[in-house]
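Reagents: none. Just compute today. HemK methyltransferase family member 2-like.
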Amino acid sequence: PHAVKVTHETMEAHGVNAELILTNIASGLEKRLAGLVDVMVVNPPYVPTPEDEVGHTLVGKRMVVYGNSPSK
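Predicted 3D structure written out:
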């Protein structure tokens, strides 16, 4: 409810016209929106990273770099 209120205020401040829906994504949006929308933006709940995993995203994994990286 607070997030919807703040989002609505932000939309108004920037002249954005959209419908905000607060719902459980699994509660029938597919039927309600079928054929009516091109894009749906969803903000799933934030799940914090456990403290012991912070900074370990690439440890033990191969990293591929694209672009203008030096060859030597």
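The chain has two helices and no strands.
Action item: order primers for follow-up constructs.
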